[in-house]
Design a protein that fits this description.
The active site is at 87 (proton acceptor). It catalyses: thymidine + ATP = dTMP + ADP + H(+). There is one protein chain. The protein has helices at 15-28, 66-75, 93-106, 125-133, 192-196, 201-204, and strands at 4-9, 33-37, 46-48, 54-56, 58-59, 82-85, 109-115, 136-139, 154-159, 162-164, 185-190. With 225 residues, the protein is an alpha/beta fold. The strands form three sheets. A six-stranded parallel beta sheet has the order 5-2-6-7-1-8, sandwiched between helices. Strands 10-9-11 form a three-stranded antiparallel beta sheet. Strands 3-4 form a two-stranded antiparallel sheet. Helix 3 packs parallel to helix 4 (125-133). Bound molecules: adenosine-5'-diphosphate and ligand LXEULUCI. Adenosine-5'-diphosphate (ADP) binds next to helix 1.
Length: 225
């Protein structure tokens, strides 16, 4: 039976990489997929991972109808075994309904990838609808880490390394500072404790994992002698 699966997590946890791996493995076995994205950092009509993989994709902008696109494709004699949508957090609730309709009415698997919450810890519209409708919601296994070493569960937006809480929900960008450095909007993944305290690596003065904040003493035996 076809399914709607939502692979979610923070920024930088490997979602696009997994999307491209699924695409690679399925196409290697002769399955035909349609790949969609919206507002990828690499530009329109592209799906890119930080591991360097890039693939072409159909840009599913505002007003794009996934169900109509598939019906047209099939009517024209095309084949579709599965659908991948990256940056699905940016989709509208109606577009996610169309994805569910593709699964139920056309019996095509849909694998959606996206971050769950925005820089203010609120659900994106696309992610909210995916959580409501998906047959399965998967949290990615490769966790991103907060500067303190704890699992990063939240996305912070930063300006010059400092967390900001005002601004538009959608600002396309990357982990770290923008290319021009000062004043550029960037993102940093944090654990909830540090997101709540608005404590980024820069504001905490941390150059890397702060080992003394981890409860490692109990796990690592003290050296003998
Ligand atoms: N130089 C590198 N060497 C090994 N792994 C890397 C490197 N750069 C990035 N990664 C991996 O890529 C992941 C980010 O993958 P990506 O698909 O771009 O994430 P997402 O789509 O979730 O934002 C990182 O969590 C890390 O595991
Ligand atoms: C938290 C947050 C993120 N974004 C943008 C920033 C990136 O362009 C994407 C996430 O991409 P990734 O492949 O998962 O790293 O979302 C945003 O617009 N608003 C936010 O609050």
């Amino acid at each position: 039976m076809a399914e709607l699966a939502f692979f979610s997590g923070t920024m930088d946890c490997g979602k696009s990489t997994l999307a491209l791996q699924i695409q690679h493995n399925r196409s290697a076995r002769g399955l035909a997929g349609l790949i969609f994205t919206r507002n990828d950092r690499a530009g329109e009509g592209r799906i890119s991972s930080r591991l360097g993989l890039v693939s072409e994709a159909v840009e599913a902008g505002e007003g794009f109808d996934f169900h109509r696109h598939l019906v047209r494709h099939l009517t024209a004699g095309g084949r579709v075994d599965y659908v991948i949508t990256d940056e699905s957090q940016f989709l509208s609730s109606e577009q996610v309904d169309q994805l569910a309709r593709i699964v139920d009415d056309l019996s095509v698997d849909v694998y959606a990838f996206g971050i769950t919450t925005d820089f203010r810890t609120r659900l994106f519209p696309g992610s909210q609808r995916l959580i409501e409708l998906a047959d399965r919601v998967e949290t990615l296994q490769v966790e991103a880490l907060c500067w303190c070493g704890a699992r990063a569960t939240h996305n912070a937006r930063t300006v010059e390394g400092r967390m900001v809480v005002e601004g538009a929900q959608v600002v396309v960008g990357d982990i770290g500072q923008g290319p021009d450095g000062a004043g550029e909007t960037g993102y940093e993944v944090l654990c909830r404790r540090h997101h709540r305290r608005r404590l980024t690596a820069a504001s905490a003065g941390s150059g890397g994992i702060a080992h003394d904040t981890l409860p490692l003493d109990a796990a690592v035996p003290a050296p003998r002698g």
